[in-house]
Amino acid sequence: MTTLVLIPGLASDAVVWQPLADAAALPSHHADLTRDSAITAMAERLLAETTGSLIAVGHSMGGRVAMEMARLAPERLAGLVLANTGHHPRRAGEDARRQEMIDLGNRDIELLADVWLPPMLDPARTTDVALMAQLRAMVRRAGPAVHERQIRALLGRPDAMAYIPSLACPMLLVAAQQDGWSPIAQHREIAAAAPDAELSIIDNAGHFAPLERPAEVTTAITSWLDRRFGDRHA
């Protein structure tokens, strides 16, 4: 049976993909990205922790890990789901901006959450007390050391566009209308380069679409899984 590998993003954990794990017919494996300081090492660990056929479902940084899994082991990746993610290598000036966030997190993880989270969301959701409390708790659980380690991994990330055209497995891109960090255009670039890709756009959501609009994101993914895979992996 095919396993869904559910991969969270920066300073995130299993709560990001729990609604999908609860709804999907396939068994799931929640990825732990807290131990490695390189995207490739994260992908290698997940491949070693699992067996058989996989569908990697990645959010943000987790999408980059999912693509790297497909590059490393194309024979095992039956499909990819990439939500609110990107493909670019490190950009000019990025190091300094990332270092500022590392320093902030090391000084006060609560302050990091205050600064980092609101711009990640649909502006209409920043006053959602329950959502903000859920996200803040997630950042606290990650803590400053994991946050820094993952930032270092992102700074050393591969140029995914160099190999996306060779990823032959079916791919679903999930983008959000209000995501200013990983905009829809970025997902269109990935979809255009991939041999077999579809794009689903979630309304009234930002970069944390799987938590901002869990029902809509889960439906988009499970509908694609049913249509593309059906009972073939049961």
Report on the architecture of this protein.
By secondary structure, this protein is of the alpha/beta class. 46% of the residues lie in helices and 14% in strands. The chain has 9 helices and 6 strands, in the order βαβαβαβαααβαβαα. Strands 2-1-3-4-5-6 form a 6-stranded parallel β-sheet, with helices on both faces. The protein is globular and about 45 Å long. The termini are close together.
Overall average residue pLDDT? 96
Number of helices: 9
**N-C termini distance:** 5 Å
Order of helices and strands: EHEHEHEHHHEHEHH
Instruction: Report the sheet with the most strands, covering strand number, pairing sense and barrel closure.
Output: 6 strands, parallel
Large-scale geometry:
globular
- Percent range for β-strand residues: 5-15%
- Helix and strand content put the structural class at alpha/beta
Which consecutive residue ranges, at least 5 long each, have pLDDT under 50? Answer: none
Number of strands: 6
C-alpha-based Rg, rounded: 16 Å
What percent of the residues sit in helical stretches (DSSP H or I)? Answer: 40-55%
- Spatially, the strands of the biggest sheet line up as 2-1-3-4-5-6
